[in-house]
Design goal:
The protein has 287 residues and is an alpha/beta fold. 41% of the residues lie in helices and 21% in strands. The strands form 2 sheets. Strands 2-1-3-10-4 form a 5-stranded mixed β-sheet, sandwiched between helices. It has a 5-stranded mixed β-sheet with strand order 7-6-8-5-9, with helices on both faces.
Length: 287
């Protein structure tokens, strides 16, 4: 019998290395899964669209982004947390921008990969938590990290939220300035799967999840090897990778907390990203 094809999407970042290692070792194949990896440099907004369009079956994406999109009608469910720890967002500006203080960002122009993306949502949630509101016309859509670098360098935008360690090489090279940091107040990445796939192939999704969880467990058990590998593959300094690795915990089971979901929904409402009286559908796959 042929292996079940599952198309899994994710960003081209070091968080997803355990999945790539499992693919390279043939772990998915040994469980009857033909895993096809799809890279989305545009982040969560690009992936929620791919899920809606049926371009992928599953994605590893930002918790708040996929929750917002399922509430807005994306026929998908969260099947597992992927990273238990919060995401450390670096708050950046262009190296020639006069902006120097984190407290001065809230009336500036924000580079975002797309509306509804993590870079968009976190800017709104962070501002809101500090008593500020951002107008829609402050956002400049730049598609991805490359677009952000161009936009910030040309002073076409002023502020950009992106994962701190992914952007650190650009900070070190003097292309970006980091003016602040913001920790997501919940586990940062989850795995979401389209409803149609969950209905047709529930056992295959469980096998995919077990393989990912096992690989994440293995990755965390050998810190020296993991740190060395990330440093080489993602061209990052050993010291930076050490700090990142020891502040990151991968999930090794599929449990998703209702309280965590409630916290995200509350923050999305407070930030006016979803309506106060919005109907909240079932967000978690109850297997």
């Amino acid at each position: 019998m042929a292996d079940q094809l599952i198309r899994l999407g994710g960003v081209p970042e070091h968080f997803n290395l355990p999945v790539h290692l499992a693919m390279e070792r043939g772990d998915f194949k040994s469980r009857g899964i033909d895993l096809q990896w799809n890279t989305y440099p545009g982040g969560t907004g690009q992936m929620t669209k791919a899920l809606r369009d049926g371009e992928v079956d599953a994605c590893i994406l930002l918790t708040e982004g996929v929750i917002k999109d399922i509430i807005k009608g994306n026929a998908a469910k969260i099947v597992s947390v992927y990273i238990n720890t919060p995401l450390n967002w670096g708050v950046h500006t262009g190296v020639n921008n006069t902006l120097a203080n984190y407290n001065d960002i809230f009336d500036k122009r924000y580079a975002i990969s797309r509306f509804g993306s993590g870079s968009n949502l976190m800017a709104v949630v962070d501002a809101n938590s500090k008593g500020h509101e951002i107008d829609k016309d402050q956002f400049v859509v730049i598609k991805n990290l490359e677009g952000a670098l161009e936009s910030l360098t040309a002073n076409e935008s002023d502020v950009f939220y992106w994962e701190k360690y992914t952007t650190k090489p650009y900070v070190d090279k003097g292309i970006l300035k980091r003016v602040g940091e913001y920790l997501t107040p919940w586990p940062c990445f989850v795995i979401a799967v389209r409803d149609e796939v969950l209905e047709k192939h529930p056992d295959d999704i469980i096998r995919m999840l077990r393989t990912i969880h096992d690989s994440c467990d293995q990755f965390m058990l050998d810190p020296n090897s993991a740190i060395d590998l990330v440093s080489k593959r993602y061209a990052q300094k050993q010291k930076d990778v050490e700090r990142w690795f020891h502040s990151t915990e991968w999930a090794i089971h599929g449990w998703v907390s209702n309280k965590m979901i409630d916290s995200v929904v509350y923050n999305l409402k407070v930030a006016n990203i979803i309506e106060e009286d919005e109907d909240i559908p079932e967000l978690i796959w109850r297997r």
